[in-house]
Structure formats: structure tokens, C-alpha cells
Q: What sequence folds into this?
């Protein structure tokens, strides 16, 4: 690969005089000079760190902040600019902790990753979930607060990679030399750990014959990282969320009904899979999609960005069928999401060595005591919702979330169904309730707090719904809801109860968007009051 690597510093501007070099591009999406006219603003220091550890970087500045303030729209525009101007690596020592920005940023990140842009992003210093840093399609970075790492060192953190998407911890207390020979010392923060990792990414690109996938690049970084114990096995990178999906074929096994709620990604094809020749059925869908590509794609082997990137399998499959799907995925370069409540599958080495993602839900949940926070202390209203099995709870939650969003509220929703992940909700396994409902609520509260949301909705199936949380000795719930399908009356019954002993009940012949809207109006008034 070319000796020079084009790096964009998406930040508050870069002062080229401090770098003692010129900028390839100096773009202002947020207009105004370098912050406060200072030479040592945030973006300039980030650029200097990249240049210090990788002198072959061609630096471009994409300014999206003034007074250290910007927004998600500007960040999305910056990523689009990077793709259109041949940027290879984007350094983002910034991000949003606003849950409302997640959907927009995820779409922009996944589009940019599909186009080949490598993104290195800083986590928020307070430990909250950060976007884009927490997404699978970027390299997330935080600084070393233990004092273990020395100058020029970084390490891979499997636990943080899974829990928050932040894969790498790096040294940040750099000493830089300015154009006059003076020494500038960087503070120990995530912002200045990130450009150091960006420099390591540039080195890996420079030494590669071909541009590696983001997964392969993470493995290369791991191989070059500081490891107190020199193990020989590469870690299997696990993701809490399958948030990389742009387009996916969805295949449902026997007996899988699914929800009418839309997936968070595009779904060009969705079907029930046959009892036999499953892999052949899936391959037909892949080939039909390829046939719709321009003739030039077949000659060059370069397919458009509209091809699916993931195969989604819902329901239990035979081990031999899963092995055949693995082989298909390797051949056609697809990731796999496999959701089964009764079976786990470990991909074979050929699949893993191709650095493809195989995602399955975790059936156990673990959270450190120091990461928990009492739900009362978070000041996030908690709604506990209990539903009957026959009810399409994901559609109900999808519509309810839209009503909250319309009024400016961001609702964080966790459900005991793993398919919730595909509908932009969280999953919390019931097996985590080994210590009772209280343990689940504590876990949900901690997750909601780290997501920095307005409202938390915790949803669990219960056969005996009436007043369930009180039977379980739970006292931190603000509002209890039950949603029951009443077969004999062919209706839906919703009951609501608050800590202040207020209660109300609705009965609907069916639960359409209008009915949910009327219910939402009452719920919103309760929350406000």
C-alpha cells in the first residue's frame, strides 16, 4: 500500500502552523476559525499525536465543532465528506452520549464502513455509552487510568469490547514537540488515547498489501498490542449488539412467527426456510440479489453497496445445516446472526479466520457491582411491563417508542426476547433473573443509565402478570403495565398501576396504532405528573 495514509481529524479544527506542515484539506462544516484562535486547540493536538507516531500521515482537518460543541448532523456530514474525498482513516476524539443520536450515527457509520472508511473513535470519559465509539464498525478507544501502560503502548480489553464496544485501552500522556521546539504535555483522557491508536492503524495499513476489513484490522491491532501474558490464540471478538447490519436476508425456521415491527435495517428478502436443503435455499436468495447488480459488477467482481452484508437465521437449525451456512457465508462474505433459544453454535476455524462475524445472544448477564447504579439515583423513570406470550409485544413497543420520540422523549427499551435486538431494542435474558426480578431491574437500570436516556421500559413475559413485581418484593418501579391477550373475549387488556396506587384499565378489540396512541396519551400524563 502507499507509504502515505490520508487521515482526517474530525474535530474543532487543526492549526497547521503547530504541525509545521500543510493540511491536505481544511474543511469547515461548522464555520469559524480554530477554537478561540488558539494554536493548541483539541483538534490540533489530536493531529499532532497522529503525526508524532506516524509521520507518513497526510492530515486533513474536518471542523464540525465550535467551543467544543457540535451535533450528530455535522458528524454525519463529515463522514460523508471523508468517503467522497478518499480519506482512509478518520480520527474522532469526540462522540455523542445522547441516545437520540444513535440511529442517525449508526446509519452514517455503517454506510461509511461499507465504503471502506476506517473510523477510530473515543469513548466518553465518564464511562457512558458513546456513539460512534460503541459501534461494531468502528475502533473504540479509551485511555489507561491504571498507570500500567507506558509510552507507545496499548492493549485489547475483551470485557470492555463486549460490554461497551470499546476494544482498546491506550497510553494518552504524550509529550509533543511544537514547531518552535517547545514541549507540550497531553492530559490523560480518551481524546488523546484515540489518535495514538489511529497512528497504529495507519502503520497496519501501510504494511498491508490490501485494505483489511475492520474485523481483520482489529486482529492486527491485537497482535501488535501490549499483552502481559503472551498468549498465542487470537480472541474471538464478541459484540453485545449486531449493530453493523445495513441490509440482511432474514430466514425463519419452523414455528417462528416473528413480529410485524420493522427491523432496524433494510430487509430485501424474508422467508420461512424449508425443512431440507436450507443452505441451497439461502444461496438462491443471495444469487437473485447478485443478478440484480449491473453487468459491470460481474466482470469486475466489485458489487455495489446495496448487497446484503448479513444472513439472519431465526429458530433452531441442525448442526450440519449451520455448517453449510457457514461455508456459504465465507464464500459470499456475509456475517451471520443466529438467534435460537435452545441451541448455541461455535463457528469453525475457516469462518473465524476470514474475520467474519457470527453473532448469537448471550443467555447470561453479568455486570460489575461498581458499574451498577440505584435506579432511584439515576432519576430515570422506570416502567415495568408484563405481557402474555401470544401478544406481539415488539410491535406494541415499537409504536410506543415512536410516540415518545414524537414528543421529544428517548425511550430505552429492554425485552426478554433476543429478537428485540433486530428491532433496535435491548435484550436481557431471563436466566439473569436467578436472584429474582430485583436483579433484572438493577441490571436494566444500569444499562439504561449508561445509555443516557429519558425513560426506561423493562419488558418481561409473565404467565401470572397481576401485581407481579409486588409479589417479587420490588419497590423501585414507577409504573407497572400488563398487556394481556384475552382469548375468550378476543380482545387486548391493558392495566396500569403506579407507586402512588393509581390504577386504570383499557380493553381494545385489537391494538392498532390509534389505540396505542390513546394509551400513550394517558401514560405520558402520568409520567409528567
A:
Amino acid at each position: 500500500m502507499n507509504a502515505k495514509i490520508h487521515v482526517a481529524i474530525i474535530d474543532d479544527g487543526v492549526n497547521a502552523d503547530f504541525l509545521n506542515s500543510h493540511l491536505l484539506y481544511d474543511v469547515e462544516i461548522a464555520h469559524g476559525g480554530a477554537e478561540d484562535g488558539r494554536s493548541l486547540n483539541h483538534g490540533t493536538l489530536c493531529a499532532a499525536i497522529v503525526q508524532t507516531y506516524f509521520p507518513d500521515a497526510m492530515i486533513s482537518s474536518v471542523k464540525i465543532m465550535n467551543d467544543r460543541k457540535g451535533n450528530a448532523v455535522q458528524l454525519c456530514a463529515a463522514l460523508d465528506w471523508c468517503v467522497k474525498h478518499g480519506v482512509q482513516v478518520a480520527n474522532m476524539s469526540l462522540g455523542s452520549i445522547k441516545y437520540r443520536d444513535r440511529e442517525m450515527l449508526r446509519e452514517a457509520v455503517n454506510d461509511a464502513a461499507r465504503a471502506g472508511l476506517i473510523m477510530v473513535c473515543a469513548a466518553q470519559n465518564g464511562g457512558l455509552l458513546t456513539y460512534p465509539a460503541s459501534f461494531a464498525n468502528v475502533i473504540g478507544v479509551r485511555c489507561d487510568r491504571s498507570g500500567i501502560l507506558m509510552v507507545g503502548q496499548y492493549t485489547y480489553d475483551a470485557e470492555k469490547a463486549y460490554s461497551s464496544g470499546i476494544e482498546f485501552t491506550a497510553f494518552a500522556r504524550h509529550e509533543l514537540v511544537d514547531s518552535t521546539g517547545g514541549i507540550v504535555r497531553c492530559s490523560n483522557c480518551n481524546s488523546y488515547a484515540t489518535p495514538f491508536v489511529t497512528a497504529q492503524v495507519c502503520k497496519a495499513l501501510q504494511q498491508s498489501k490490501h485494505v483489511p476489513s475492520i474485523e481483520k484490522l482489529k486482529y492486527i491491532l491485537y497482535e501488535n498490542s501490549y499483552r502481559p501474558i503472551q498468549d498465542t490464540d487470537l480472541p474471538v471478538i464478541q459484540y453485545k449488539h449486531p449493530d453493523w447490519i445495513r441490509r440482511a436476508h432474514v430466514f425463519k425456521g419452523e414455528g417462528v412467527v416473528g413480529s410485524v415491527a420493522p427491523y432496524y435495517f433494510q430487509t430485501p428478502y424474508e422467508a420461512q426456510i424449508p425443512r431440507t436443503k436450507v443452505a441451497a435455499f439461502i444461496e438462491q436468495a443471495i444469487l437473485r440479489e447478485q443478478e440484480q447488480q449491473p453487468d459491470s459488477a460481474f466482470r469486475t467482481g466489485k458489487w455495489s453497496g446495496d448487497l446484503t452484508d448479513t444472513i439472519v437465521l431465526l429458530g433452531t437449525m441442525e448442526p450440519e445445516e449451520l455448517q453449510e451456512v457457514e461455508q456459504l457465508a465465507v464464500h459470499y462474505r456475509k456475517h451471520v446472526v443466529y438467534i435460537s433459544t435452545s441451541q448455541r453454535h461455535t463457528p469453525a476455524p475457516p469462518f473465524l479466520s476470514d474475520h467474519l462475524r457470527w453473532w448469537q445472544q448471550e443467555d447470561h448477564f453479568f455486570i460489575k457491582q461498581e458499574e451498577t447504579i440505584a435506579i432511584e439515583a439515576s432519576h430515570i423513570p422506570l416502567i415495568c411491563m408484563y405481557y402474555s406470550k401470544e401478544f406481539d409485544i415488539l410491535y406494541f413497543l415499537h409504536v410506543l417508542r415512536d410516540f415518545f420520540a414524537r414528543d421529544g422523549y428517548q425511550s430505552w427499551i429492554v425485552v426478554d426476547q433476543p429478537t428485540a435486538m433486530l428491532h433496535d431494542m435491548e435484550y436481557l435474558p431471563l436466566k439473569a433473573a436467578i436472584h429474582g426480578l430485583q436483579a433484572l431491574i438493577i441490571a436494566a437500570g444500569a444499562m439504561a443509565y449508561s445509555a443516557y436516556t429519558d425513560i426506561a421500559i423493562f419488558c418481561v413475559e409473565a404467565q401470572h402478570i397481576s401485581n407481579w413485581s409486588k409479589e417479587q418484593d420490588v419497590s423501585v418501579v414507577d409504573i407497572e403495565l400488563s398487556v394481556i391477550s384475552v382469548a375468550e373475549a378476543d380482545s387486548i387488556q391493558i392495566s396500569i398501576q403506579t407507586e402512588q396506587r393509581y390504577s386504570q384499565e383499557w380493553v381494545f378489540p385489537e391494538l392498532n396504532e390509534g389505540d396505542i396512541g390513546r394509551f400513550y396519551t394517558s401514560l405520558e400524563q402520568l409520567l409528567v405528573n
